[in-house]
Write a structure and sequence with these properties.
Helix 9 links the parallel strand 9 and strand 10. This protein has one domain: Aldolase class I (TIM Barrel, Alpha-Beta Barrel), CATH 3.20.20. It is built from nine helices and ten strands. About 30% of the residues lie in helices and about 15% in strands. The chain is of the alpha/beta class. The chain binds iron/sulfur cluster. The site of iron/sulfur cluster has 16 residues, from loops.
Length: about 300
């Protein structure tokens, strides 16, 4: 596994020594998190009845102008912890009865996450979920084989113009679809446990953006070409709310209409994907937990 000395953990491939510099993600070689606790607002097969044990990591490999977690992803809010403390957090979440450990945007810290998981491997009895933006390198996904049981990647865009404009990642789609294929290869088809939550598998999340339903259609068509309907679950999300810098782009400075959302749901149905939709009133800040820490780097 790579370390932080010549960081190429994500497709940005900054190639820097993170003990002295930070790269695109803004993170040094010290683990930084902004929240650890129960989360009840994931898909039902992730949150279950007792909640998902989420750890929100600071920093991100994307710069989405509409990010609802922008305080931690782009403004570097958080607190530093050690690998030992991260391992203790995993065990503490498990002791609270959570269905899983849910790593939210852990990519910049994967070497440390692996060490922390190694330290608790014999005591951790619940699945590990990796909840990420989809912009992952195949090598890093491979490094997590045997550590991650459930992948929860976004597949945000098909168009390179849109991914460049809104997330500063022109090669987003071609990178993400290869990463998701590798994730599915590692976990196989979705498998539910006795408690109704996911033990293994991939849930691809697609959040519908206002104005861009035709791009959503292409995303779903591409998923239909890459996977048989029973190989992945698909979560079509309606929660888009113009936050952070979204107002800079008038076409996405509003919520998604019912027509737009239903159009994308119809596409998903056409390809026979099993999965999840959201209530139309589920948008908004209620999904954003309160983050801890400060803005110092
Ligand atoms: S994890 Fe951060 S420093 Fe490493 S390649 Fe990605 S953006 Fe660059």
């Amino acid at each position: 596994m790579q370390d932080y000395l010549n960081c190429r953990l994500c497709p940005r491939k900054c190639g820097i020594d993170r003990s002295t510099r930070t790269g695109f993600c803004g993170q040094s070689d010290r683990i930084r998190i902004a929240r650890a606790g129960l989360h009840f607002w994931e898909e039902p097969v992730i949150s279950g009845e007792r909640g998902s044990g989420t750890v929100f990591f600071s920093g991100c490999t994307l710069r989405c102008c509409f990010c609802q977690n922008y305080e931690i992803s782009q403004q570097n809010k958080g607190r530093y912890i050690t690998e030992g403390e991260l391992a203790e957090i995993f065990l503490d979440l498990q002791s609270q009865g959570t269905h899983n450990i849910n790593l939210v945007s852990p990519t910049p810290f994967i070497p440390s996450v692996i060490k922390a998981l190694d330290a608790v491997r014999s005591r951790l009895k619940i699945p590990v979920v990796c909840n990420c933006g989809g912009y992952e390198s195949v090598e890093t996904v491979r490094a997590l084989e045997g550590y991650v049981d459930v992948w929860l990647p976004d597949l945000k865009y098909f168009s390179p113009e849109l991914s460049k404009k809104y997330s500063q990642a022109e090669n987003y789609f071609e990178t993400a679809i290869e990463a998701i294929k590798q994730m599915q290869k590692q976990t196989g088809k979705p498998q539910l446990g006795d408690d109704g939550t996911l033990r293994r598998g991939v849930i691809v999340r697609h959040m519908v953006l206002p104005t861009h339903r035709r791009d959503s259609e292409k995303v779903i068509e591409a998923l239909g070409q890459a996977f048989r309907p029973d190989e992945i679950l698909l979560s079509v999300m309606s929660q888009y709310t113009p936050m952070f810098r979204a107002a800079e782009f008038s076409e996405i400075n509003r919520r998604v209409s019912t027509f737009e959302y239903n159009f994308v749901l119809d596409c998903a149905e056409k390809f026979g994907f099993d999965g999840f939709s959201q209530e139309r009133d589920s948008a908004g800040g209620s999904y954003v937990p309160e983050f801890e820490g400060d803005y110092d780097s």
